[in-house]
């Protein structure tokens, strides 16, 4: 499939209409269609049903109906066991964007009864992957001609589509996944703007900053961790752009004459960021009585039954605590904290700091090894050894600093979950893209025999990631109580260590 795409891409470069390549666009569209069909196969458990019930899949529908009445509440029967009750009203803590997105379907269906979660999750993941592939092509074509290795590009494209959290989180379209998928897509769109500028060696334009601010505002109203990271990244990049354009004129008459130009350049992204923050603040205030609170678990209906230690943990350590950073990092890197949570004396230590550490544990060096290795190479190159490349290193550094905020928030959070690994995607994928460009340049200097060894190793790592990611997807389906029992039992023989889940 990827060989077909690359061959078409080479041929298509000769056929241009309006600066775009017809065959390139068609082959890319074909590739994304195949990807979408395969993802639907996985998400629908082999049925290809796009509009099917999912757990709590009417919650965002209900949120939209209430929002159109000027309310920030949700029907209790729609939100079910994830309800928060405050002053006798029922709320959800999820961001509003997935609900607002359903406006597109209102003219043609009864929004209150529709099953749209699967379509929404699938769309978000496909957009994420399409943007990742687009960035790979941008980085690939930014390289010197001698450094462009189509075989390596094909391996990377295969790994992007068939491994990593974008694949093994397709176990279900539960309410928890929808904001995570959409925020990852927004992070990828943010990165696409950054990559387009940085690997072209140019500064960010006002239009770029406006787009970055727009995605940051949308992300803040989708998932707070990614929203905060994109806000920080936009502010850092905006400040850098202003300094770059006008620092040389500081204190001169020319700077004064350019004040209007400065305001024209910086006010639009500031206005968009402000609007996004105000909208989020209003929603938070209406829900929790505090504009800066995204979720108040004191009002969580299950706090006394499913999570009796939640109030104590919140009182001692809060929603986020830097003391949890190393535990969170260990969980997302190895899964060890989950394995130790039932082993004394670690049980009390972990129970005092987290109100949930979810199964299954995951080892990302198995599920997406290429991303991990290339990200390490990319971080090393961009921070300590930029080299003679024409990339705009400052833009890449500031973007990574912004994304690092999401990484720290997830590591320091009160809840550890496999699905939260997707919040690390903007940071990891951007670093991996830098690593891909760096290693492509490096192998140019190697003998052909060494290059073949590198290629064979990358193919092996890609295959490892594909097999491990698909097996992780299988495990998540077996242990997911929201899936039909016949699906879980069909897959159970491939994960016999999960038999205890069915003996309870």
Structure description:
The protein has 504 residues and is mainly α. It has 2 domains: 38 residues, no CATH class; 380 residues, no CATH class. 63% of the residues lie in helices and 3% in strands. It contains 24 helices and 6 strands. Strands 1-2 form a two-stranded antiparallel sheet. It has a two-stranded antiparallel ribbon with strand order 3-4. Strand 3 and strand 4 form a beta hairpin. Helix 2 packs across helix 6.
Question: Notable features of this structure?
Answer:
504 residues; mainly alpha; 24 helices; disordered N terminus
Task: Count every beta strand, where a strand is a DSSP E run of 2 or more residues.
Answer: 6
Which strand-content bin applies to the residues? under 5%
Structural class determined from secondary elements: mainly alpha
Order of helices and strands: HEEHHHEEHHHHHHHHHHHHHEHHHEHHHH
Helix content: 55-70%
Order of neighbouring strands in the sheet with most strands = 1-2
Q: What is the arithmetic mean of pLDDT?
A: 90
State the assembly state of the protein chains.
single chain
Q: Which term fits the overall shape?
A: globular
Spatial separation of the terminal alpha carbons: 44 Å
Largest sheet: 2 strands, antiparallel
Q: How many discrete domains?
A: 2
């Amino acid at each position: 499939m990827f060989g077909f795409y690359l061959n078409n891409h080479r041929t298509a470069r000769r056929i241009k209409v309006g600066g775009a390549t017809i065959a390139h666009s068609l082959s890319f569209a074909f590739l994304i269609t195949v990807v979408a069909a395969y993802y639907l196969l996985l998400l629908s458990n082999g049925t290809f049903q796009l509009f099917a019930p999912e757990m709590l899949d009417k919650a965002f529908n209900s949120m939209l109906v209430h929002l159109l009445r000027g309310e920030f509440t949700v029907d209790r029967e729609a939100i079910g066991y994830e309800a928060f009750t405050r002053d006798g009203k029922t709320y959800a803590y999820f961001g509003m964007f997935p609900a607002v997105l359903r406006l597109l379907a209102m003219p043609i269906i009864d929004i209150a009864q529709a099953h749209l979660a699967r379509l929404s999750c699938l769309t978000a993941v496909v957009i994420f992957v399409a943007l990742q592939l687009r960035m790979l092509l941008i980085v690939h074509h930014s390289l010197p001609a001698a450094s462009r290795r189509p075989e390596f590009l094909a391996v990377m494209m295969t790994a992007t589509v068939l491994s990593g959290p974008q694949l093994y989180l397709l176990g279900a379209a539960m309410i928890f996944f929808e904001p995570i998928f959409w925020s990852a897509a927004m992070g990828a769109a943010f990165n696409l703007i950054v990559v387009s500028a940085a690997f072209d060696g140019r500064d960010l334009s006002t239009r770029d900053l406006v787009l970055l601010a727009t995605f940051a505002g949308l992300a803040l109203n989708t998932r707070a961790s990614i929203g905060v990271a994109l806000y920080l990244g936009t502010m850092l990049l905006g400040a850098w752009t202003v300094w770059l354009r006008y620092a040389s004129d500081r204190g001169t008459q020319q700077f004064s004459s350019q004040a209007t130009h400065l305001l024209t350049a910086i006010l639009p992204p500031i206005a968009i960021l402000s609007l996004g923050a105000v909208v989020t603040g209003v929603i938070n205030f209406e829900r929790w009585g505090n504009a800066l609170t995204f979720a108040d678990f004191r009002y969580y209906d299950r706090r006394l039954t499913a999570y009796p230690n939640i109030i104590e943990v919140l009182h001692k350590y809060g929603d986020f605590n830097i003391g949890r950073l190393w535990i969170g990092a260990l969980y997302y890197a190895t899964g060890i904290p989950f394995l130790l949570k039932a082993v004394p004396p670690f049980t009390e230590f972990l129970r005092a700091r987290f109100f949930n550490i979810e199964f299954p544990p995951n080892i990302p060096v198995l599920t997406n090894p290429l991303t991990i290795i290339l990200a390490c190479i990319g971080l090393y190159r961009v921070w300590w050894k930029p080299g003679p490349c024409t990339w705009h290193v400052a833009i890449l550094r500031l973007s990574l600093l912004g994304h690092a905020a999401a990484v720290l928030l997830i590591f320091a959070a009160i809840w550890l979950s496999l699905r939260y690994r997707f919040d690390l995607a903007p940071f990891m994928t951007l670093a991996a893209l830098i690593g891909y460009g760096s290693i492509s340049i490096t192998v140019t200097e190697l003998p052909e025999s060494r290059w073949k060894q590198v290629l064979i190793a990358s193919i092996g790592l890609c295959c490892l990631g594909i097999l491990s990611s698909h097996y992780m997807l299988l495990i998540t389906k077996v242990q997911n109580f929201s899936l039909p029992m016949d699906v879980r039992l069909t897959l159970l023989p491939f994960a016999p260590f999960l038999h205890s889940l069915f003996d309870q």
